[in-house]
Write a structure and sequence with these properties.
Layout lengths: L19 H12 L1 H22 L6 H38 L1 H4 L11 H12 L1 H4 L1 H20 L25 H13 L1 H9 L7 H23 L5 H32 L1 H10 L6 H44 L1
Helix pairs in contact: 1-2, 1-13, 2-3, 2-13, 3-5, 3-7, 3-8, 3-11, 5-9, 5-10, 7-10, 10-11, 11-13
């Protein structure tokens, strides 16, 4: 009976830190960070956040409905954009990882294993959220009246809200394959000036996911607020509450998220150190740690924004809107 083979003191004991399912999961998160984040947001925005908003006391029913419609639209559009843009970039970076000499012809052979390379590829993958922030807010604003009409039977005017006709497909457009995208990314990373800049900031790779997420949220909320104020498809008396709700939620999420993440990161430093020792010599160790650095802030920000804050932000938005309305009247 081989009881000793299951003992943690046995050098052959793998344990939880190098469990193959855990490692494979972290590798996938590293390779598809935006997809994981968008998928999490989709689940939370379609389920948890609407339920929290619905449970908020002392808020007008229609303001709740607009907040729920915003949550649903935002989650769907974010996921759709990620699948359309981020996923091809993530797959292209994976091709570079697998065959660096094909795409990084002017870089040292050690570059692909450096922290500079990790930082550069993370920016390429996670930066798609920042690039798509404004289009995402535009599409969200356009879709909110449709959700309000189809689900809640509420329209901004008595006239039927018409969606713009779909533009005819351009037959001359062609979608570039993963190899073409990988070649483009490779040329950027191959640039000497880019490598020099990445080298300068390579120690920031642990927090790049958090910083890019925060930048995306700020740009997205600012664009959403401006476009909501200009929209003729959202009722005028519902605009301010919707804007306040988003601004309050984003502000508190960022402040609380950074604080909680710093605390968790400090407390989990020993775990990461043990994890690295348990997987020492594994060529994919940097990917596993990158996965940890992506999933940690993603879960913290999602928990705060979708689970904890909706009741508070919806309630406060209602009170601020009424306070300003009474003051102006």
């Amino acid at each position: 009976m081989q009881v000793n083979s299951l003992s943690p003191n046995n050098p052959n004991f793998t344990g939880a830190l190098n469990n193959k399912f855990l490692l494979k999961g972290l590798e996938k998160i590293s390779e598809h960070g935006m997809t994981v984040g968008a998928g999490t947001s989709l689940i939370m925005s379609l389920g948890v956040r609407p339920l929290a908003i619905q449970a908020t006391p002392d808020v007008e029913k229609e303001n709740k409905q607009y907040a729920i419609a915003n949550s649903v639209c935002s989650g769907i559009i974010k996921f759709g954009m990620v699948e359309a843009l981020a996923l091809p970039i993530e797959n292209a970076v994976k091709k570079i990882d697998q065959n660096p000499r094909k795409y990084l012809k002017n870089s040292p052979k050690t570059f692909v294993k450096s922290r500079s390379y990790e930082l550069g590829t993370q920016i390429m993958k996670l930066g798609t959220g920042l690039v798509t922030a404004i289009p995402k807010s535009m599409l969200t604003i356009a879709l909110i009246p449709v959700i309000m009409d189809k689900i809640f039977n509420i329209r901004p005017t008595d006239k039927k809200t018409e969606m713009p006709a779909e533009a005819p497909a351009d037959k001359n457009l062609s979608f570039k394959g993963k190899s073409a995208i990988a070649s483009g990314i490779g040329k950027v990373l191959d640039n000497k000036s880019v490598r020099k800049l990445l080298k300068k900031y390579e120690n920031q790779d642990k927090d790049i996911a958090k910083h890019l997420s925060a930048g995306t949220d700020i740009l997205l909320t600012s664009s959403f607020a401006w476009q909501t104020s200009k929209s003729d498809k959202i009722k005028e008396n519902r605009k301010k509450a919707l804007i306040y709700n988003n601004v309050i939620a984003t502000g508190i999420t960022l402040a609380g998220g950074y604080g909680v993440d710093s605390l968790v990161k400090e407390k989990s430093a020993k775990f990461v150190e043990r994890f690295a020792k348990a997987n020492k010599g594994d060529p994919k160790l940097h990917k596993y740690i990158e996965g940890i650095n992506i999933v940690r802030p993603a879960l913290i920000f999602a928990a705060i924004y979708y689970g904890i804050l909706p009741i508070f932000s919806t309630y406060m938005a209602e009170k601020i809107d009424k306070f300003i309305e009474n003051k102006e009247s």
